[in-house]
Amino acid sequence: MFRAVPARHLVLPGVSFQPTQRTGVHGHDRPRPILAGPVLEFLDLHRRFRDVVALDGVSFAVPEGRIVGFVGRNGAGKTTAMRIALGVLQADSGQVRWHGAPVDAANRRRFGYMPEERGLYPKMRVLEQLVYLARLRGAQKADARAKAERLLETLEVVGDPSARVESLSLGNQQRVQLAAALVHEPELLVLDEPFSGLDPVGVDVLSGVLRREARERGTAVVFSSHQLDLVERLCDEVVLIDQGRIAAHGTIDELRALRSRNLWRVGVRGVDGEWWEVIPGAMRHSQDDGAVVLELAPTTDPQRVLDVARAAGDVVAFGPVRPSLGELFREVVS
Known about the structure:
By secondary structure, the protein is α+β, with helices and mostly antiparallel strands. It has two domains: 220 residues, 3-Layer(aba) Sandwich (Rossmann fold), CATH 3.40.50.300; 74 residues, Alpha-Beta Plaits. Helix content is 30%, strand content 29%. Helix 3 packs across helix 4. It starts with 9 loop residues before the first strand and ends with a helix. The N terminus is likely disordered.
């Protein structure tokens, strides 16, 4: 087994510093401050493939030290936007900016990328491949090897590091793929469906690694996923894209505020009949596990609902209905 290296960081008001690491991939001798601000910006991107409009004015930012979920249906434009940021595709118009300047090949050396179609060399040995990829980004051999070994342990890769990649299970190959994106200590991670095919343990391990990258190193992270419950738990911000356009963008709470319906779940024990009918502006939306979900008009005070419910019987449940990201997504793109 590889020996774990403890991670500690100093937090000051407004600034967080990574500890000094003289053994890092690039031989960093000074900590890098983590300051809130846009690292990567998509500005009015347009891209068409013949008659198909893939991107139609896409604009959003990925701040430093934040995890941004990029969510949309198949063909919505997620992968196209990512490939433009990485220089694999060119936009018809618009711009991708890195710390406020146009992104170029030199900037992209500071990106870490995990494609949806996994891109490891299957015949190459695991540790050898990670060291090779780090050295392509300018790392010294000894530093690259030390970083690769730490990542294999952190990501809990099961298998012999001297074995060929193709000998690992698909889940472990995916963990090695993330290690390949991280081995050169990037400032930005761009991940396309990184959790696809992972078991729950693998999802937890990768989620923990991404949180630490963002919180402790200030890495900006943007990833696409169809696992909306995971996006809701992990991300600081969510970008919803539909048919090449940004349908909504914000924190989960901000997206919930876009929801037009004002729903409250009320459970009352020991009462028959529709007790809420005496409340102006309260209508039954649905039943939920023995409780009723009421839709309230903007002028209806939820405390009035609670008072009437208490008068009717024993209140066993009362509170606003917080829609899941999946429900928000269906509302926004419908």
